[in-house]
Amino acid sequence: MQDRLKSVLSKQRADYVEVRLEEYESTNIRFQGKDIDKISSSQEKGGNARALVKGRWGFVTFNRWEDLEDKVKQAVEIATLIGDEQSYLASMEPVVEDLMAEYPNYFREVNLKEKVALMKNYSNIITNFSSKIQSSIADYTDRYNVVHFANSEGTYIRQVHPYLSVHFTAIARDGDDVQMAKESIGTVKGYEQALQISSLAQKAAQRSVNLLQAKHVPGGEYTVILDPVLAGVFIHEAFGHLSEADFLYEDPRMQNLMVLGKKVGSKELSVVDDGSLPELLGTSKYDDEGVLTRKNYLIKKGILTGRLHSRETAAKMGEEVTGNARAVSYHFKPIVRMTNTYIEKGKTPYKDLFNDIKKGIYARQFYGGNTTFEMFTFSAGEGYLIENGRVTEPLKDITLTGNLFETLHNIEGIGNDFKIIESGGGCGKGGQSPLPVTFGSPHIRIKNVVVGGR
Amino acid sequence: MQDNIQELMDKLGNKVSSGELFKVNFKTVPVDYEMNQLKSINSEEVEGWALRVIDNGKIGFSSSTSESQFENMIARAKEIAQFGQPALFDFPEQVKIPRKGKLKLYDRSVSKKSIAEMIEMGNSIISRAHCLNSELRCDVGIVKQEGQVRYCNTHGASFDYQKTTFASSIMIQDTKEDDMMMLMESRQWGQDALSLDSLWENIEQKFNWGKKIVEIDSGYMPVIFTPKALLVLILPLIAGLNGRMVNKKISPLQDKLGQTLFSPLLSIYNDGTIDYAEGSAPCDDEGIPMQKLPLVEKGVLKNYYYDLQNAAEAKVEPTGNGIRNSYHTSPSPGISNLVIPEGETTFADMVKDIKKGIVVDQVLGLGQGNILSGAFSNNVQLGYKIEKGKITGRIKNVMIAGNALEVLKDIVAIGSEVDWKSGRYCFPHIYIKSISVATKN
After folding, report:
1. What is the C-alpha to C-alpha distance for residues B61 and A37, in angstroms, rounded to an integer?
2. At how many degrees (to 10) do helices B70-81 and B5-15 cross?
């Protein structure tokens, strides 16, 4: 394979050409209530070629590997058609590495019967939890991807991306009131991770039943405490995306907003993206341009210190590559993405964060989040009212919003606990979803957050 | 597939009780502009094969990207079927496509559209944005797609059709030290008939309204949803009317057919028979003809929507809503196109009617939260304040929240013009009496 790719790539007239060939097998099992709902097995093989000519890209995707040579040519032709300025691409040493052996086969050795039985058991745990539970979903996915990457500079890398996720949804009902709670795990560590999560299924069930008792949150401005899950979502959505250099590398007005050295928060606030942490969902040795991943400080002690790059954005901005060019699959080109993103832990025992809050909200778990650069929003899976420093009654349908820069300055406490969340969801950007990522944080306290409610 | 179809079906028929093969081929060419410049052109080809079988009364499913995997797909689907859902239906004996007025889905001029023409279109959008304000950032996507869908089963039923799509999307961003305005508009249709002029009128109008930022107080107030923002209120309905959710007894709309649940001004149709709409097809992805299905008529709940399996479970006729999200998934109940017929009130008259309220045009966090319960809670990413019958400026840092199933009872007026969104949602403006709006104290 390596030789074939090398020979195809060596013939092209372009500033840069790369090829990605990929194949995967995947199994999906879904129980709804006590019955099997969906079960499927899929297999996919495909590839893409991306060419850079005079600053413009041609990108071609295909399913038949035998067409490789033609497709590479086509990518170069398209790029040549529109190329009209200088190409920018950060330089790097070619790498040749086969990482195939690093991963055992994991779930591929487990038979279907066993996986089905496991999910049935989890679905029953949720359904039997309470008479209030109307339905449940237990959804299992495993996927075993093998990716070959080669470029015209002589790099050839073969990497494996194993992936396993289990999602639980508990749906509780009382008359017309239907409440839903979700829990999930996602992992690269293998089938064992899916075995011991009955407590997670129970947690989802318990929360959905609790939500039937919860009151609507009254809309307004509050001091909020976010648990590590929601704080992780916050830092990913609100800040992480703005650190992705493809949003600003050609946009001088955006660059002004994100000048390195700018003070964006308190001294206690440090934020990191690290694709090289061992065995996490966002981890890989090389990114999808063959660049080594590494630990990148985005905020250090309150100062904006770095951002995430592809080879093109790094070259254009005169900064170092960071190993953050990622593609969900061969259907897409690599774009700047996060990996494992977290807020470093602070000094305050997290229970002390609640002290002297007259009226506030303790928001936990998450449904989802979204951002358009300066504005962000995310929804809590559950929440509680805080009155005079004490957590009181349960609330539901809590969605928080704010302006990123104001909100970073409004972080007034960072707990000394810490947790990295590996959920079965993923990050979406530019139509590419779900990309496996993780996020983490201690508990944090933020003042003046707008909360939607009624 | 035509050539060796019989051979494949014979092979399949010998190994399972019955089976169906679904195949898609799509070629997509996006031309992308970033930061006012042509950035890249793609050529994306996708081939997908999906096999669904009924073996010993149970359903099995497998998918692949190549015909060469056919034997392997059968083996995998059979293995899966051992654990599969009991089949409550069988694949159709024939596909009954209505003959009158053949549905139009394919436009040769989309397929013929050259890259040069697409670039010309993109360039003209960029220069118009530049005229609006030379410091704006403008990102543009022009996309053409053509594809073919084919289906056949072991009972000898089959269908196939070709389809084209042409789409353009525009994002305009005005970045200042302490403010960022983002405006997004897009058009998508099966025919090469997109007029950018109306799109552009919209953008200019909204850009001008948005120049000034105005303050607003929290509280309950009238809200006008533009066609672009209306999914906020409609997504919970789409979820609640899904036959699967109804069968599982988790829909707040179950057991309510025939009841008046919403304002009598509101009607909603699922309609897969509209020429060139994105969700249209002669039949759904399991061979049941698409139709115009009333979901809500004058506020009364009329129908849920079903695929074969769920219709059988509910003991009703399938509605032609067996949709596959991709070739990797088996059919499940899904919406084809959704149409809310226009009402009688112009947008201008709605605004005139409001003393203090807002217009919601774009939201953040669509579909995030407990949709099934009807709850929504969204940041108004682009919205405007109305004071004494006039739009006075753009609002920021504002949340709207409520329960869509409740809110749709209190419709004051439905807009007199409809607009297609994403090629599949045909919506008017909707003016709601009162919604909770929260902002900074």
Report:
1. 12
2. 30
Residue B1 scores a pLDDT above 60 = no
- Alpha carbon distance A436, A288 (integer Å): 13
A376 touches chain B (CB under 8 A): yes
| pTM given for the model | 0.94
Output the CA angle A89-A94-A97, nearest 5 degrees: 130
Nearest Cα neighbor of A121 from A34, A215, A216 is A34
Q: Which domains does chain B have, with CATH numbers?
A: 5-205 (3.30.2290.10), 208-233+342-438 (no CATH)
Mean pLDDT of A42-55: 97
pLDDT at B379 over 90: yes
In single-letter form, the type of residue at position A208 comes to S
For residues B190 and B177, give the distance between their C-alpha atoms in angstroms, rounded to a whole number: 41
- Whole-angstrom Cα distance, residue A273 to residue A324? 9
Q: What is the mean pLDDT of chain A?
A: 94
- Residue-level pLDDT at B178: 82
> Letter for the amino acid at A140?
Y
How far does A113 lie from chain B, in Å, by closest CA?
Answer: 8
Q: A399 at the B interface (CB within 8 A)?
A: yes
Rounded Cα–Cα distance for residues A298 and A171 (Å): 39
Tokens of B75: 């083996």
Q: For chain A, which residues make up each domain, given as ranges?
A: 2-213, 216-452
Are the beta carbons of A56 and B39 separated by less than 8 Å?
yes
pLDDT number for residue A193: 92
The answer as to CATH 3.30.2290.10 being correct for domain A2-213 is yes
